[in-house]
Structure formats: structure tokens, C-alpha cells
Amino acid sequence: MRTALFTQNIVLLMKDERAGTHxxxxxxxxxxxxxxxxxxxSLEGGLSTFYxxxxxxxxxxx
Length: 62
Known about the structure:
The termini are far apart. The chain is 95% helix and 0% strand. The protein is rod-shaped. The protein has one domain. The chain contains 2 helices and no strands.
């Protein structure tokens, strides 16, 4: 009984095209998040150097 209900639900989900769209959007969001985190982590050292230099410049001017 449970396996028949489970199989029936899987078949209904496979027929529903909206579920595929939701999965695609979730994958795109996940990949975008991973790429953003990788990009920001790679910029971390350069940004730190930039802001430390800017802070030194502002300290000398002010």
C-alpha cells in the first residue's frame, strides 16, 4: 500500500513541469552562492591591503 502511494506520488511529480522549474531555480541559486563565496574569498587579501593603505593615507591627511 505504501509503496503504491509512493510510486503514484513520484509519477505525479514527474508529470508536473513546475517541479522541474523549481529545481532549476534552486540549482542556479546554489551555484550562484558558491561562486559568490569563492569570488569574495579570493578578493579578501587584496581588499584588506587596499583598505589598510587607505586607512594609512587618511591617517596621514587627518
